[in-house]
Every structure is written in C-alpha cells, then in structure tokens.
Specification:
There is one protein chain. The strands form 2 sheets. Strands 3-2-4-1-5 form a 5-stranded parallel sheet, sandwiched between helices. The protein has a 5-stranded mixed sheet with strand order 6-7-10-8-9. Helix 3 crosses helix 4. By secondary structure, it is an alpha/beta fold. The chain is built from 9 helices and 10 strands.
C-alpha cells in the first residue's frame, strides 16, 4: 500500500519571477506533480505559471504539470464543482504516494484559491500532510511600487477586498492609517465618488500588476484608464499617526 504523498501550497509572488523564493523554485524542480491553476478550462492560461516560468526551466522539472480549472466567477454552481474536481485530481495522485505542489500567485494564505482547495482536501484526506510555502504578497508589493510605507510606530493598517468592502470605508478611515483595497479594478469610479467629498482623494494611489513588467502606478485615481484590470489595488495612505518615533512618546 502506498503512503499518501505530501502536499505543498507554493506561493510564487506578485509578478516578478526573481521575487520567488529559493524554496519554491527547488520544490517546483523536484516534486512529482506541479498543480497549476488555469483561468479558462483547457486553455493552460495561468498567471501563477507565467510567473514561475520566468525563473523555472521546464527541462529542470522532474514532475507532471497538472492544470486545474479555477473559474473566475462568483457563481457557486460553477466554482464549487470546479474546486471539487480539482481536489479529486489531487487526491488520486496523493493516494498513489506522489508529492504534489499547488502553485498560486502571491501568497497561499492571502486571498488565494488555495483556501478553497485546502477545505476540499481536508474533507477527503483529513490526515494529509500539508506545507505552506510563503511568498511576497501584493500587500507588500504595492507599497514597494508606491514607495509609501504601510505603517510605522503606532500606525495601523488593514486589507479589504474593494468589491466587497468600500461601504465600510468611512469607518475604516477613522480606525486605520493605511487601507489596502485589493481587487480594485472595477471600483475606481465609486472610490473617487466616495473619497473626493471627504477630501481624501489625494491619499489614494492605484497600482496594477505590482512588480511585473507591466506594472502601472497612478497617483490620481481620476487618471486611471476605464478598462477593468484584475490585478489592481489602491493604497489609501492617510497616516495621521505616522512618525511617533520622531516625535517621541506623548
């Protein structure tokens, strides 16, 4: 009887291949199976794989490249069956004793489809050995692009999915110095309409494809092109509490 294989969730970072960790590269070269999320079924279109291939020579891989469909929709009649099918594809290989790596853009623990796949696998293989390999996430890649720090001293920051959370923005502005709004591509106009009357529009910086070759930064939301960009975030930097170490303890 084969021993069940080990599963790795491997983050490949926000876009620049040379931001991948040495551990992630070594695992992708050595594991039996590399599971790759694809956007459209059967099309092998994967942002995570595009990032990995910047530094990973396919000839140096010893394992199978297995594409798994993760549809880009909120329709649960489509997403849940796709996640179940992806889990079943991995279960068959893990039960055959193969070690599998599931790659994901950004970090596996931060707004990643890995979370849904992990839940599906926990139901099927409750004793499965799992290792999460962290990566640079867009939450730190975006401040790197804007060169505006997330926080210092006594400052607080939070991360909110823009497509679910801008109605709570007035309250968050009272509590946090920096707010990172992820998946903000479709929300630029509503953000302008909310921030301009509050006198905070100048605090918002838009970044798409952070760290990638096609990275773009707009320091005025009114100049952002209208087309939707999936990999877009807004850093809202109010920073009313910054500089405590310069001022000294009050």
């Amino acid at each position: 009887m084969n021993k069940t294989g080990k599963l790795y969730a491997i983050g490949v970072g926000p876009g620049a291949g040379d931001l991948m960790t040495l551990r992630s590269l070594r695992l992708m070269q050595s594991l039996d199976v590399i599971a790759i999320p694809e956007k459209n079924k059967g099309q092998a279109d994967s942002f995570a794989w595009a990032i990995a291939q910047q530094e990973l020579d396919a000839e140096s891989m010893r394992g199978e490249a297995l594409y798994l469909w993760f549809p880009m929709t909120r329709d649960v009649s489509i997403t849940v069956p796709a996640w179940e099918a992806a889990a079943e594809a991995l279960v068959s290989r893990l039960q055959a004793g193969l070690d599998v790596g599931f790659i994901t853009e950004g970090d596996p623990s931060v707004f990643s489809t890995w979370a849904y796949l992990q839940e599906e696998l926990a139901e099927r293989l409750p004793d499965l050995q799992v290792e999460v390999v962290p990566a640079v996430s867009s939450i730190t890649a975006v401040p790197a692009a804007t060169t505006i720090p997330l926080a210092d001293g006594e400052e607080r920051f939070c991360v909110v999915p823009a497509t679910y959370g801008i109605e709570m923005l007035p309250k968050l502005i009272e509590e946090f110095d920096t707010i990172i709004l992820i998946k903000a591509g479709r929300m630029v106009k509503p953000l302008i309409e909310m921030l301009e009357p509050m006198g905070l529009l100048h605090c918002a910086t838009y970044v798409s494809h952070a760290t990638g070759e096609n990275q773009q930064v707009y320091r005025d939301l009114r100049e952002v092109p209208e087309e939707h960009r999936y990999f877009a975030m807004v850093q809202l930097s109010i920073r009313g509490r910054k500089g405590i170490l310069r001022r000294g303890q009050q």
